Write the structure tokens for this entry.
Amino acid sequence: MVGKVILYGAVLVAAVATVAPDLTTYYGLILVGVGLVGGFMEPLEDVSHRVAYYVLAAVLPGLADSLDAIPVAGAYANGFLDQIAVFVAGVALANVMVQIVKQVKEA
């Protein structure tokens, strides 16, 4: 339940950041914070899911840049996916930290 609320909140913030970027300059901070909270509250246990998040966080902004070729909606789609990539990076970073702490506790 909490994971869905965090995801919906991140999508809402990303959509607002795409449509009204001048409203505040803290969209990136908010999205990374929400991603960190989501990653710590529900860490990914499966290694393949964690790797998928790492790859998505690294590759998604580059893929989103190709959407600028679409005349009207491309810039909005690019902005939205860039904001989602910031959220995913927060989740991935939290999972890295959780796994490091887990490895230290086991050693």
